[in-house]
Amino acid sequence: MLNPGRLDTLLNTLAAWLLALLWLLPLAYAVWSAFHPTAYSARFDPLAPLTLDNFRAAWAAAPFPRYFLNTFSLVGGILAGQLVLCTLAAYAFARFRFPGRDLAFAAVLVQLMIMPDVVLVENYRTLHEMGLADTLTAMALPYVASAFGIFLLRQTFKTVPKELEEAARIEGCGAMGVLWRVYIPLAKPVYLAYALVSVSYHWNNFLWPLVVSNSVETRPLTVGLAVFAGTDQGIDWAIINAATLISSAPLLVAFLLFQRQFVQSFLRAGIR
Amino acid sequence: MEDRRQGVIGWLLLLPAAVLLAAFTHYPAVATLWHSLFTTGRPNRPARFIGLDNYRALADDPVFWKALVNNGWYALGTILPSIALAIGMALWVDRKLAGRGWLRLAYFTPTVLPMIAVANIWLFFYTPDYGLLDQLRGLFGGAAHNWLGSPGTVLGAVMAVAIWKEAGFFMIFYLAALQQQSPELREAAALEGCGRWQFFRRVTFPLLMPTTLFVLVNAVINAFRLVDHIVVMTRGGPDNASSLLLFYIYETGFRYWDAAYAATLTAVLLALLAVLAVLQFGLLERRTHYQ
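YS: structure for the whole thing
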């Protein structure tokens, strides 16, 4: 006979697993149909033959290598810009006294509410007038000065003991030397967390790239996938699902490999 | 002298970020308000100042009201279930259940998928007759139903997608908060003869309040910001039954190319976000008192 405590644990385990299965169902379904011939897309025969043809067909039907290149450049460019600009700004806010600092900081935080996605009409107008329509630069620029990154790094830099900075100054470091030798090395975990969050966000970002890009040369994966799935495929779900998996695979695999770091990073970046 | 130097270096460090922020956050916010007072310029007809006419048109625009009301329901219908699910998931993963690493993985995975991929997968899921949902219903004798094609079910269908994508993300914040709660609380409560549900309602949930506030703010922002799945799954249809505010802005600005009216709509969205910002500020103040 089960005692009440054991029974309770058993029921909870069962319910938790049921929800987990439900949560994995859509993804499992996509995987199933991507790896089986179209005829089995909606027939769940455990003996159905496995195939990679859907992936071949998807890969051949759209310029995925180009889309990957675009996404890599976009995500890499945004991250590089963010790391440099946010570090400098955060350093200024954390360790320098200058007139208007508090006001400037409040002005930075405005971006946490007015995100670039929301003002896409005016940003498009600006970038169009600058002659940057349909470029990766236009896709990246609104996100480079990230209020979130500035805030996160400022909080981190503020926790660095002043004594370390003074020691570095005695050694003969200037303002930039101190930043490079003291602050940045001590903030490494935060940089990692921020980088993971930024990469996931921009790998997955869709609406703004959709508005800006107008050609194969600039389309990132998300927009490419939408174009691919939205147009002339008929409705061959097996191929669309293969394409969907192709475009989510790098991030998904990275997540499965570095699960702990991902979760920690999202947490660290979220809690602030 | 030293102060002057500090000031100059400070501003120089800030300058690059400040320029970009001004250009792509502050300027567009102001320009939105300004351009909403004009007509949309065309090649043969430059933009003309018309005062508040755009706002009058907006007040008479049934599609705008539809999108606004939809967005309200969408916010309510995604935020509450995803928070409830997130708390449930966190409580489960926090307990020593068998295979909890796998559970956490299953719950969190949708977070790292692109919304656009998620939308494709769910589109397939919802396909009438052929999709998994109708097949499952078929087992129980349910008739095929066009989930995304009927005004009655389409909003609920896209809400389910958002809940699926977000609950696992919110879970990790609750999990972190739960892991910081001291186990003595539970032991003390057990000695007092306090039941599981009572313990949750009286102790755990109140202690999770700061987390809930944080998650709430994020969830509300997402409800107004994330419309990728609408673009792919429904295009706002049928008959605007799944149109959300930002999606309507996108359609107006980039399919009908009516920039002035899109600016007017954006102004409404900005006003909404400003109200939220004030609320958030109030909440954050409370949160500091709490700690």
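YS: worth flagging: The two ends of chain B are 40 Å apart (CA to CA).
IM: good catch. Also The domain at 62-257 of chain B is CATH 1.10.3720.10 (MetI-like fold).
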